[in-house]
Prior knowledge:
The complex is a heterodimer of chains A (181) and B (93).
Chain A: H1 2-9, H2 15-33, H3 40-54, H4 62-67, H5 74-92, H6 108-114, H7 118-139, H8 143-152, H9 156-177
Helix pairs in contact in A: 3-5, 8-9
Chain B: H1 3-21, H2 26-33, H3 39-60, H4 74-91
Helix pairs in contact in B: 2-4
Amino acid sequence: MKFIMNYLRKETWSPYVAGILLGIVGILAVWLSNALLGASGAFENLAGMIGKFAFPKVFDNMYFNYIMPPGITYGVILLIGVFFGGMIGAATSKTLKWGKKDSSNDDAQWKRIFGPQTWKRWVLGFLGAIILEYAAGIAGGCTSGLAISGGMLLVPAAFLFIGGMFMSGILTALIIYRRRY
Amino acid sequence: MSTSAIALILGLAFGFALNKAGLTKYHKIVNQFRFTDMSVLKFMMTALVVAMIGLFGLRGLGLVTFPTVPATYIVGNLAGGLLFGVGMALTGY
């Protein structure tokens, strides 16, 4: 028991143990609610809701009417859970930095590569996230929604996606890091 | 239990696992692409294998029916993946 409590307080688990936990979550999602895990779809549901309210004409298209209908879906609730689950995880290892100094940019490696300015990280994060979300829209899912949920059902799309993701990810990292790669 | 409660609890566990694996950190994601830290692959592949065994086992026993699976459209999946990797290496998502 003490061993388990101590392990819960550790900051970084063995990725194998955390992976087993995610695998079980994936099984339970299908078993209990016949749904798949995902993250990017939830953002699209929320964006669709805001868009339908603010610009009903622009958002009245095939994509937001049929493929990604707006609303508080299963994925949105799951995403809220992910947010607080991450916070609980950080709180148990006492690494939760809510409201503390450097809380918006504390990654030493990031600072070494791009510089210490916080605004840079926010801008880069925002631009990168646009690319991510758009790409997830094209592919039909993100790392969790397509690669993991699709992969565990042995869907070919998931493995194509993982292949593409690694190809361009390695290339991008090569360009950013150059000699430091 | 209602579907929303299940979604919330599963989400909590999902976020917890991601945090404990360290995947909420920028350097873990980028270092995967630099092959100096393999935790992303270890985490993903372990989750995949566990879930595959569990799900196909349960289906074999007739306990679950699979939901509609993500569609396969080769060009789209591959193009999306190629673009996704750029964003992933930039932001560390």
